[in-house]
Amino acid sequence: MSARPRLGVLLAVVATLTAVFVPSAAAHPLSAAPDTAVLDGARLQQTKLRLDHGDPQLRRALGNLTTRADNWLNQGPWTVVDKPKPAPGGDVHDYLSQAPYWWPTTTPTAGNPWGCPYVQRDGQRNPEVDTGTDRQDVEKVFDSTYDLALAWYYTGDKRYARKAGQVLRTWFLDPATRMNPNLNHAQFIPCKYDGRAIGVIDFSQSYTSVVDAIAVLGTGAPGWTKTDRTAMTKWNSDFLGWLKNSAFGKEEGAAANNHGTFYDLQLAALAYATGDKALAKRTVLDARAKRVDPQIAGDGSQPQELARTRSWHYSTFDLVAYTRLAAIGRHVGVNLWTYQGPDGQGLLKAVDYLLPAATGAAAWPHPELEFYRYAASDVVHAAADAGDARARTAVPKLEAPPGGDLWALRPAAEQLDSIAG
User: Fold this and answer.
1) Which run of H or of E encompasses 119?
2) Is residue 188 helix, strand or coil?
3) Which of 25, 33, 243, 399 is deepest in the core (most CB within 10 A)?
4) Which of 26-40, 74-88, 241-255 has the highest mean pLDDT?
5) For the segment 295-340, what is each residue's pLDDT rounded down to a tens digit?
6) Residue 331 contacts residue 37 (beta carbons within 8 Å)
7) Is the pLDDT of residue 18 over 60?
8) Crossing angle for the helix pair 258-273 and 277-287, nearest 10 degrees?
9) pLDDT of residue 125
10) How many CB atoms lie within 10 A of CB 263?
11) Residue 344 pLDDT > 70
12) How far is CA 141 from CA 167, 236, 278, 413, in A?
């Protein structure tokens, strides 16, 4: 046999093996970029591509994420209708939570079952708020759907998508178990208030993660149907209407501390997700003079948060809202990171103010009942991504939160320490 025929046979064999062992682009198309409100969908798409090519650092992070997602597979679903007592209005579909820092002053009796009156102890969480209301369950809904949706997106494992869909349908959509789209009875105080505007933060601190999870599932998750997507958009539209027009929503929007920042975050995210890009943009633009100017000092400190007994927690907490709001701004053409107020205040200075304590270079010089250095890790990541050279230098010195650093897979700040309220 001549050399030319032998070469032809060899090329044919190589072509056959290539067809068998190399997946085609048609068989494994690049996942669509989710139209997320906070997360950068195009960045998620590129991260997925890097994972598919075996990026070792991302693989380690993915192991941490799938560990979290695996833990949710045998939990839930949860519903507002299974609490021991309905909300004060009597509707089991109404969400109910209790103010975390309010405590009874007397021993409960048959005539005074709550131990009223209640008094406030700032920063000290009353353990009874974690039983008998919906607060603990709704946080599991928020965390599980986010972890599960992202785990499905990066791995393609249908179990994660189907579980996320089940959790969302049970809490928000199924007529027998759904939550009414309002927070009329959030953070009630026994014998004092049936609900409070301050309770809006029960959702505003984490619900934007659910908004993004829904967008991720919307790229083709098995078990998450067009009917589900339409119904979830309707729920979000109704909730946005309540947030804009209710007395509690308006009062929370007027708050001058982290409650106001988180309100803006939730408003902008819901507006973006339901198609009102103009409202989303206006909310981010207004946050410059309305939030940044009065809340952040020229040196980058946040005086109202420093006045708290948990000043480190609340300083990082408020910046979670700011950095997530800045991420929404990116989608609507507003760069909140570069804004500077009349005293030179801005997000970059506020993050830089935390860096000595975040890196362990210096102690936090303000009151803090329980200091967790890793609470600042995500907001430092966010500032580094936004171009802050000091934050970028600090990133290798950050303390990873429990469960590992997931920034590379979900580059949007989360509240990393455990306190709620």
Assistant:
1) strand 118-120
2) strand
3) 243
4) 241-255
5) 999 999 999 999 999 999 999 999 999 999 999 999 999 999 999 9
6) yes
7) no
8) 160
9) 86
10) 26
11) yes
12) 7, 15, 29, 18
287: closest CA among 323, 245, 250? 323
Distance CA 368, CA 319 (A): 17
Provide the total of helices (H) and of strands (E) in the chain, helices listed first. 17, 2
191 close to 114: Cβ distance less than 8 angstroms = yes
Query: Each residue of 145-193: pLDDT tens digit?
Result: 999 999 999 999 999 999 999 999 999 999 999 999 999 999 999 889 8
Contact 392, 380 (CB under 8 A): no
394, amino acid identity? A
How far, in Å, CA of 295 to CA of 131, rounded? 34
Residue 60's φ and ψ, nearest 5 degrees, are: -65, -45
| Preceding amide of 117 cis, omega within 30 | yes
Q: Can you tell me the distance from the alpha carbon of 387 to that of 336, in angstroms, rounded to the nearest whole number?
A: 12
Structure tokens belonging to residue 110: 């048959």
Picking from 318, 180, 189, 198, the residue whose alpha carbon sits closest to that of residue 249 is 198
Beta carbons within 8 Å of 238's beta carbon, 6+ residues apart: 181
How much is the pTM?
Answer: 0.89
Q: Using alpha carbons, list the distances in angstroms from residue 245 to 238, 241, 283, 300, 398.
A: 11, 6, 15, 33, 41
Contact by Cβ (8 Å): 179, 95: yes
Q: Helix, strand or coil for residue 98?
A: strand
Query: For residue 300, how far is the Cα from the chain centroid?
Result: 24
pLDDT-derived band of residue 70, with 50, 70 and 90 as boundaries?
very high
Q: Could you write out the three-class secondary structure of 310-348?
A: EHHHHHHHHHHHHHHHHHHHHHCCCCCCCCCCCCCCCHH
Which bin fits 136, alpha (ψ -120 to 50), beta or left (φ > 0)?
Answer: alpha
- Decide if 402 contacts 375 (C-beta within 8 A): no
